[in-house]
Write a structure and sequence with these properties.
single chain; 74 residues; alpha+beta; 3 helices; 3 strands; 22% strand; globular
Length: 74
């Protein structure tokens, strides 16, 4: 039996604020991530289409994408 070991997630808006980045830009970058990269979709009455959420591993994956993007656009 598989047991989920993710105990919390942070929304895209919160991660963007913590990293000092634009949320729309991060959403574009994060579209490259998969669930195994720590991307989790969260649904609630206010976000019926879902909002991106990230496990700790997902935030690290996103930071790696930011670094890759910045190193290739310089």
């Amino acid at each position: 039996m598989h047991i989920n070991k993710v105990h919390s997630v942070r929304t895209l808006a919160l991660v963007a604020r913590e990293l000092g980045e634009d949320a729309e830009w991060l959403a574009d970058l994060a579209s490259e991530l998969e669930p195994e990269d720590g991307l989790i979709w969260v649904y609630d009455p206010e976000h019926q289409d879902g909002t991106m959420g990230f496990s700790e591993f997902g935030i690290e994956s996103l930071r790696n994408l930011i670094d890759i993007h910045r190193s290739t656009t310089k």
